[in-house]
Amino acid sequence: MGAPSHSWRPALAVLAAVIGVAVLGPVLWRVDPNRVGDLATLRSAASSWAHPLGTDENARDLLARLIAGARVSMAFGVLAAAVTAVIGAGVGLLAAVSRPWVDRACMSVVDVGIAVPRLLLLIVLTAAFGRLSWGWLAVAMGTTGWFALARLVRARARALVGGDFAVAARALGAPTMRVAVRHLIPNVTGTIAAATVLAFAHAVTLEAALSFIGQGAEIPIATWGGLISEGRAQIATAPRLVLLPAIAIVVTVLAAGVVADRVERGEPWTRANGAR
Amino acid sequence: MRGMGAARALALPLLRGVLVVLVVAVVSLVLLHLAPGDPLASSADDPLVPTEARARVRAQMGLDRPLPAKVGAWFAYAARGDLGFSLSAGMPVAEAVAGALPYTLRLGGVALVLGFALGIAVALVQARAPESRWDRWVGGGALALWALPEFIIALGLIQLFSLRLGWLPSSGASDPWSTGGGAIRWTEQLRHLVLPALTLALIVAAQVSRHQRVALREAGREPFLRAARARGVREGALLYRHAGGAALAPTIALAGLALPALAGGALIVEQVFAWPGMGTLAFKALAERDAQLALGCVVPMAAVVVGGGVLADAAHRWLDPRRATEPS
Fold this sequence. Notes:
The structure holds two protein chains of two kinds. Chain A is mainly alpha-helical.
């Protein structure tokens, strides 16, 4: 990303704030996101003291629904990114330190995964197992999104395997596993961290898109993509129903992108070690 | 000589591409086999349907067979262009796909060309004044576009051009009530194409402009460019002819890498614009729990994307003679 490097602190703060709101959500704003308001005034109301961001067409509190959506999106993004990081880093490191045939096998899988749109893999999974619960959809997204990360980690780790300290460790008799765990992993954490934050951003975007087109996880509560889809009918009279969740998605994803960029470029240890 | 090399350079990636598509098909078939339930779960599992009738239909459809037989049968029929029968669409899967695929190809192809043209043009303008305010603003815009999901861009464009200004239609691929022929019909279909294609093109352009900007910079450091400058070639010609030419090859390579994301985006954008392509078909198949149709959508789409990647790779090698000798 070509983000200006000075803007990463606000980005980190935004990301932390969104995750904080997601974690603390119900404590911060004690309104039930699904409580339908007064039936006599069953319409989208403008902002008021009771509803700072107004209500949707069923008189449900928009702030509470945005917070509920943040909880879903953040939990989803974190889980998907964690699965991506574990599988991607595992396969990448394995390929980097193993025999050539293992390396080739791992990278063949990666080549297939990268060449095929992730959405097609998700379509196959949904066709086989029906609409997935949010947890399984996040796991599915993680297991279909780790290929690029594995390739990146392998490339970095391979550059390090030939490096002085790894050669020295092996010369001192350290077994392959020990070299991998003690010497390679600490040196690729920056790469993994940056790619994981990006995976988080991608998962949040894709989840929002899927729930917008009504193909997301089966969740009884609000999601950001779902809010936009619901609010679309009122876009002329109450544009905030669409704008606010859209802003929430874009700001979160943008912040994650800037943070990932910074983690990748400002990674002091790989630079010092001359890794490419 | 060069032709020979190009043919050989194309053969191996092509073989690899075929393998990738085969893997996708096999993995999908295995997953569908492992999943509980089958296409008849809703209709033939009705308690009023006698057991033997159910078993007969299952046997007819090959649902009771072991996995290898299922996979073998699917490939045997697919090789003859038969992708099975879609219960939800009420027609052969191949027929449904043949109806939808041209729309997706039209949308994706136009978006790809438009996106590359836009991205390259923006990068060239950026490269005229590096680190200027304009350069940074455009870079920031590309970053913002990266963070915008396709469907939000689509909504914004619909809001502006369809609802506010009323210039362009917001759904479908043509006007069902249009009676005009020839040129009228053609412009009317073009008008339907503009917004979905623009949505995807903007995303492609954001990615292309970032890449192209870096590629132009790297080309700017090449010795041949310094030599050209020393010969007194004007700055404009330097940028457009010399650096631009050298930077084109990495950008073409990017086309192959961008294809999977473009295809994924197209599937979603089609839904927003009710574009009658593969995305709409695939998601309808999911809603109807029609696995046969979903599989029939996934495999051809994978083939298109992988095939496009192979072509982009070949074009890259052909454009950049240094790459031609590298092992693939």
